[in-house]
Antitoxin (Seleniivibrio woodruffii), 84 residues
Amino acid sequence: MKVVNFTEARNNLKSVLDSVIDDADYTVITRRDSNDTVVMSLDTFNSIMETFHLLKTPANAEHLMKSISQYKNSQVKVEDIVGE
């Protein structure tokens, strides 16, 4: 994560935007008289939103955690996909 002030972000906007994409990270822009903001790539934002969507219902979150646990404990069954 990088932190830049508003003036620096404005003066170097292309560099700030390129950095969040190239580094797959986000940048916090601080502002003196207002709330700070965050700049991130669309891919990062979409990934966060997908994770939020998958975990927002307790039943789905529990199912995912159980699946991850089974995978980590080598309790998986590999099957061929029909047609391949």
